[in-house]
Structures are given as C-alpha cells and as structure tokens.
Design goal:
With 164 residues, the protein is mainly α. Helix content is 73%, strand content 7%. The chain has a three-stranded antiparallel sheet.
Length: 164
C-alpha cells in the first residue's frame, strides 16, 4: 500500500473512531459499567452478595407467590443457561434460594427465594437504591433525569420492537 493511501485510511479511521456517535455511545457504556461496578462493590462489602445475585432476588421477589423457572430467570437477566445454573448453585449454597421441580413439567426447575434470601434482598435493595441515587439520580436536575429516563425508555422500546 502506498504512503498516500495509508495516510488517507489512517485519517478516515481516526475520524470514525472520534465520531460523536462512537464517543457518545462509549460514554454510555463507560457510565453504565462504572455504576454497575459501584453497585456490585457496595453490595459485596455491605451484604455479601453480587449485583447479579440481587438482580435474581429482585426478579424472584417482584410478585409474591409467583413461580419462576430457571429458564425464565436466564431470559429475564440475559444470562446463558449454564451461567444461570452456576449462579443459582452459588445462591442455593448460600441459602438465598431453593430449587423445586415443577409440578406440571418435571423438566422445568423452579426457583424461589428463601427467608434468608428475602432478608438479603431487602438489605441489598437499600444499598442499591443509595448508590443509584448518589451516582445516577443526584448528579442531574429533575428535568434532565426525566429526559434521560424517557430517552432510555425509547431506546429500550426501539430495541425490543426491532427484535420481533
């Protein structure tokens, strides 16, 4: 490749890498990752559970008495089946959840929170809320927060609609 063509390719690559869309999306990913890391660190330190474990407990505690299969958990949390199995194994060993066979289909494994799991969830939910308030809500004005959450809802809707 000649030097002139390579320089042109380098400049085009630099423009693409520094484009507003790439920069803005990178900022979204970095912010979400950093917030996730703050939440996870606080939950591990104060409650002895990971953020992913809290997400499982949130799902299990949303509707009292609801039966949730391990497969539903994997879908809801966008985890692989094997990742969900390992996570539920750790949570079961910690006494946070219990598995039960489905009465209607013996191939289905149901997961429910234990009393200890519900207690851990309540402690974790308070920690989660405090960190989210501090780093996601508080830095913004009320109007900016409403615009942000509205925009995120629209993005989520577009992604869900496109998947159909």
């Amino acid at each position: 490749m000649n030097a002139t063509r390579r320089q042109g390719d380098d400049e085009a690559a630099a423009r693409a890498a520094n484009s507003r869309v790439v920069r803005d999306f990178g900022l979204l990913l970095k912010s979400a990752t950093r917030l996730e890391q703050r939440i996870d660190a606080a939950l591990r330190r104060e409650c002895g559970i990971s953020h992913t474990m809290l997400e499982v407990l949130i799902r299990l505690c949303q509707k009292p008495g609801e039966v949730v299969s391990q497969r539903q958990l994997a879908d809801d949390l966008t985890l692989t089946s094997s990742g969900t199995t390992r996570l539920i194994d750790r949570m079961e060993e910690a006494g946070l959840v219990r598995r039960a066979p489905s009465p209607g289909d013996r191939r289905v494994v149901l997961v429910e929170p234990t009393a200890e799991g519900r207690t851990a969830f309540l402690r974790g939910a308070a920690v989660h809320a405090r960190v989210v308030e501090q780093f996601f809500v508080k830095p913004l004005t009320a109007d900016d927060y409403a615009r942000l959450t509205g925009a995120l809802s629209e993005i989520d809707k577009a992604l869900r609609d496109d998947a159909r």
